[in-house]
């Protein structure tokens, strides 16, 4: 519902010639709502929600209208810098290696420590925009640890769930780097990053939905953005796959019952499931019980 309303607002702003003004206001809102150290209570929660939702709205606009609409000639806001350096776009390649090099290794290390702690990112001293900027370095290290079997599949799932439960924009930042990475790696190296992206599309618990204001609406917009990034990545590699027919992530296989429920939820949404996709689901599930 929120996504439909937002698209309507964008359409009206475009028709009235006020899209640029609307975007400028969103960028100012995102910049003004960056984290203030020591701020607590409802004010801090409201600021966090504003930062998150303005980031998501701007990302959605870039995907719909192109980055040229958002980027000012000498714009130096955090979001504009992130778009230039990190946002994967159709027909505009971004180097995943360059994204990683732009990260601050000390902050990446702090992110890893925070995500491994019981408090998660709540106990981190890093500001929200600093986390967004350093997620490529974090994801690279996590993916390499999974490839080298230093981290197990359940550990990866827990790690990603901890990342996405704090802010929806973290899922967008992570997916952007993963999609850029998938555009340059070999075919046999795609499965794990694809599964990591799929994990950002899995449902969150009811408790997490209740903890943050308007989190359900933000999550709906996040899912749309992530799916568009998937499509962009698939088109760039010359093999279009719709999210409805995507293979089940091995990250979800630690909980087979939830996997089955997820399949039925997808069937309910689209009204059918292709034979190939259904066969793949059964084969993945068979690996769990056989």
From TrEMBL:
The keyword ATP-binding does not apply. One of its GO terms (biological process) is positive regulation of transcription initiation by RNA polymerase II. GO terms for molecular function: transcription coregulator activity. It is found in: Nucleus. Its main location: nucleus. One of its GO terms (cellular component) is mediator complex. Keywords: Activator, Nucleus, Receptor, Transcription, Transcription regulation. Pfam families: Med24_N. Belongs to the Mediator complex subunit 24 family. This is Mediator of RNA polymerase II transcription subunit 24.
């Amino acid at each position: 519902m929120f996504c439909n309303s937002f698209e309507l607002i964008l359409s009206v702003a475009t028709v009235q010639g006020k899209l640029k003004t609307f975007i400028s206001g969103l960028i100012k809102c995102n910049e003004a709502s960056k984290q203030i150290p020591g701020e607590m209570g409802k004010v801090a929660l409201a600021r966090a929600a504003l930062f998150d939702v303005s980031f998501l709205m701007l990302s959605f606009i870039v995907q719909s209208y192109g980055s040229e609409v958002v980027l000012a000639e000498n714009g130096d806001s955090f979001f504009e810098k992130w778009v230039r350096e990190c946002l994967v776009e159709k027909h505009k390649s971004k180097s995943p290696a360059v994204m990683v090099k732009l990260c601050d290794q000390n902050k990446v290390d702090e992110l890893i420590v925070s995500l491994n702690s019981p408090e998660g990112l709540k106990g981190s001293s890093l500001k929200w925009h600093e986390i967004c900027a350093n997620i490529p370095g974090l994801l690279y290290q996590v993916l390499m640890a999974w490839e080298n079997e230093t981290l197990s599949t359940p550990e990866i799932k827990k790690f990603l769930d901890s990342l996405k439960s704090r802010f929806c924009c973290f899922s967008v930042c992570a997916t952007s780097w993963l999609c850029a990475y998938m555009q340059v790696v070999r075919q046999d190296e795609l499965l794990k990053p694809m599964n990591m992206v799929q994990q950002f599309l899995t449902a969150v618990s009811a408790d997490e939905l209740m903890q943050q204001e308007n989190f359900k609406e933000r999550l709906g917009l996040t899912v749309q953005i992530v799916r568009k990034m998937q499509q962009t990545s698939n088109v760039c590699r010359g093999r279009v796959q719709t999210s409805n027919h995507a293979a089940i992530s091995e990250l979800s296989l630690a909980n087979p019952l939830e996997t089955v429920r997820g399949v039925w939820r997808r069937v309910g949404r689209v009204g059918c499931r292709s034979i190939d996709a259904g066969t793949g689901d059964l084969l993945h599930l068979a690996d769990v019980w056989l």
